[in-house]
Amino acid sequence: MTLYALDAIDDALDAARAFLWPFDLGRWARLALVMFFVGGAGGTPPFQFGGGTPSGTGSQTPDVSGIPGTIPSPGGTELAVIAAIFGIVLVLGLAFLFVGSVMEFVFVESLRREAVTIRRYWGERWRQGARLFGFRIVLGALTIGIVGALLAAILWPVLVGEGALSIGLLFLAIPVFVVVSVISGLVGGFTTMFVVPVMVAEDRALLSAWRRFWPTLTGQWKQYAAYAVLSFVLQLVAGILASVVTVLAAVGVAVPIGLFGLVGVGLLSVSELAGWGLIGLAVALFVVAVIVIGLVVAVPIQTYLRYYALLVLGDTEAAFDLIPERRAAVRE
Fold first, then answer.
1. Ordered alpha helix ranges (H), 268-323
2. What is any Pfam family matched here (predicted)?
């Protein structure tokens, strides 16, 4: 049996090379902007769970607010500031996730038409991007809910002070965490790599596209199992390569920027304001340079990985093929 995931490894490289070369600064710059939302994000934002220490009923907590050295409890103003900061961070995170969801369609359309036009593709696909955004919110909430409920069940005796942490139960829960994480990752990854192209190919909503893709997935599950394994390996290798290239490039830009910062250090004896200003500017320039380098490095890597998925998808179902001309060209 021919494994499409194996055949597509070299073909995706040829397709990415043809799309990105000869070098075009405008195309790479627009793709780098797309990568900021699609390939530049390392994953979902971390969620932290915290619980207060329960107090026994009938007991009276001593008033220590006046004792020197104790930390006062936050008042209404402090709580309002904390809530405002949390709300702003949450809104910014959701906005970033929404833009990233729409940019998935911008990226696919760019590869499909072999032209990168962010404004046009955004206008055509933002509604489908909104559906992907909602799906990602629900999937993330379900994953966090399952993991959180399991952790709560394990830690409940400790939290209520009625027992100790069960190490055996904790070890039994580890496989469940792994299974939930793998299933969530596969659903999210397959949605991005395969269902989004189906939505583009047949102008469908997300759930409709999943129903359309499901018979292909289950009917050729061996092909997609091979893709999942090989894609994991390719992403691992690509991640290592990207890290090495980014670090080397960052070291290269650190030298001139570092010299600029040393000028600021020398100015500290003359003017602290000017010296610290130059040092801060040097640090800001270095951070921006590293981000730009990372995005530029991500362009060929993410282009290759997305072409790889599109080739596998088209091989398993011709109706979903978004790149028939490019496929034919690289396989002549």
1. 272-316
2. DUF7544
Q: Is the dihedral of CA 216, 222, 227, 232 positive or negative?
A: positive
pLDDT tens digit sequence for 111-122: 999 999 999 999
Question: pLDDT grade, residue 71 (50/70/90)?
Answer: low
Q: How do residues 19-62 score in pLDDT, each as one tens digit? A: 999 999 999 999 999 999 997 433 333 333 233 333 334 444 44
CB atoms within 10 A of CB 223: 21
Q: Name the residue type at position 239.
A: G
Q: What torsion, rounded to 10 degrees, do the Cα atoms 206, 137, 106, 299 define?
A: -130
Q: At residue 116, what is the residue type?
A: V
Could you tell me the sign of the dihedral formed by the alpha carbons of 169, 174, 176, 180, in that order?
positive
Residue 260 to residue 279: CA distance in whole angstroms:
8
3-state secondary structure of 268: coil
